[in-house]
Design goal:
With 264 residues, the protein is of the alpha/beta class. Helix content is 48%, strand content 13%. It contains eight helices and seven strands, in the order βαβαβαβαβαβαααβ. The protein has helices at residues 19-30, 43-57, 71-85, 108-136, 157-176, 195-208, 212-223, 232-242; strands at 10-13, 34-38, 61-64, 90-93, 139-144, 182-189, 254-257. A seven-stranded parallel β-sheet has the order 3-2-1-4-5-6-7, sandwiched between helices. Strand 2 (34-38), helix 2 and strand 3 (61-64) form a beta-alpha-beta unit. The chain is globular, with a radius of gyration of 18 Å.
């Protein structure tokens, strides 16, 4: 169990008001890191979440509604975290969106949006934070990629392209920082029961006139040999470990947490 190993560190987690990002933010906070949350949501709900993380983990927690499709707002997110919390030691690039359609029918604007949020945002955030990490000779950059960063599925051209690109970006940043105290790694989850995946399940159920529970079972059977969803808590625990000194020589890795998906 990781306990307060990140005391005195500051983490920015994009897309952290729900799903995987929230699981990561909570894990880092439990390990002692101050947290800059980011994402969309009703102001009252987000404030309740911010207070919950701060109170339960005894850390400082701030929030920014920066839009991860806008480079200027991404830079503003890092600036706000630095101003409000003093620095940024840990960057978790998690924000993501999805669109499913065959290549020939894929709307150009959806392609651009998926690439912007799932790939370009990680570049812009990394670029915004890397200088201060170099100054302190310490940093952790964690990119939440996907099993789809390692293998492909039909009808997900933009998502697969973005996640493969994110794995590549991870390797480049790791090489550029190899002689420093900064590490960069990717976590590649399989199916996680997030709102994004639940939407796919509901769509499948509606199209095939089956129950959501049956669609969920079919989804897992198709890809994930364990037959069980990965949890945000499990991904958060892996992210927290990557931030420790014990993980200092894990660099440029793409760590699968996918119930055996990519072992096939």
């Amino acid at each position: 169990m990781i306990t307060k190993s990140l005391q005195g560190r500051v983490a920015v987690v994009t897309g952290s008001t729900s799903g995987i990002g929230l699981g990561v933010a909570r894990a880092l906070a439990r390990a002692g890191a101050d947290i800059m949350l980011n994402g969309f949501g009703e102001p009252a709900d987000v404030e309740e979440l911010r207070q919950e993380i701060s109170t339960l983990s005894h850390v400082r927690a701030s929030y920014s509604d920066a839009d991860m499709s806008r480079p200027a707002e991404i830079a503003g997110l890092i600036e706000a975290a630095t101003s409000e919390l003093g620095k940024v030691d840990i960057l978790v690039n998690n924000a993501g969106i999805q669109h499913v359609a065959p290549v020939g029918e894929f709307p150009v604007e959806r392609w651009d949006a998926v690439i912007a949020v799932n790939l370009s945002a990680a570049f812009h955030a990394t670029q915004a934070v890397i200088a201060q990490m170099r100054e302190r000779n310490w940093g952790r950059i964690i990119n939440i990629a996907s099993a789809h960063g390692l293998v492909a599925s039909a009808n997900k051209s933009a998502y697969v392209a973005a996640k493969h690109g994110l794995v590549g970006l991870t390797k480049v940043v790791a090489l550029e920082t190899a002689r420093t105290g900064i590490t960069c790694n990717a976590i590649c989850p399989g199916w996680v029961l997030t709102p994004l995946v639940q939407k796919q399940i509901d769509t499948w159920a509606a199209q095939d006139h089956i129950t959501p529970s049956k669609a969920k079972e079919l989804l897992l059977d198709e890809k994930q040999p364990s037959g069980e969803f990965v949890t945000p808590q499990q991904i958060g625990a892996l992210a927290a470990f990557l931030c420790t000194e014990q993980a200092a020589q894990i660099r440029g890795a793409s760590l699968s947490i996918d119930g055996g998906w990519t072992a096939q």
